[in-house]
Amino acid sequence: MPQTKSENAMPLAALIRPQTLDEYIGQSHLVGPNKPLRVAIEKHQIFSMIFWGPPGVGKTSLAKILAHAVNADFLELSAVSAGKADVKVIIENAALSSRRTVMFLDEIHRFNKAQQDFLLPYVESGRITLIGATTENPSFEVIAPLLSRCRVFLC
Prior knowledge:
Structural class: alpha/beta
Mean pLDDT: 94
CATH superfamily: P-loop containing nucleotide triphosphate hydrolases
Order of helices and strands: HHHEHEHEHEHHE
CATH architecture: 3-Layer(aba) Sandwich
Number of domains: 1
Number of helices: 8
Shape: globular
Distance between the termini: 41 Å
Strand order of the largest sheet: 2-3-4-1-5
Strand content: 15-25%
Number of strands: 5
CATH topology: Rossmann fold
């Protein structure tokens, strides 16, 4: 008997999303042997970063894998619909958690200057590890102070 939409609510992409670097296909310049993100995972030393690339190349999957590999809390926002209040909740939860908090901000280029400024002290202090994803050139779309606290990876 075929399943109804309510019985199988997860999209196919979510069901087949890779969970580990060994399952992840692509981006060998970032996750291959002795490459920056693989080394960061092996050392359990992830840092704030921005993934820049076209849709569908695995930016979100890679962020989830990184957070999981270092046993961090993973909280995901879309800059299209999130605002300062949503970020505040994540920061407050991060302060209460004993684990590292990775905040994944999809479409980071959609945050305005004030919203990006709000992230600065928390990224700088390490309260959150920011992983942003963008299809736009971050040099033009992300404010310089935030950009200077992140490593940019072309995906």
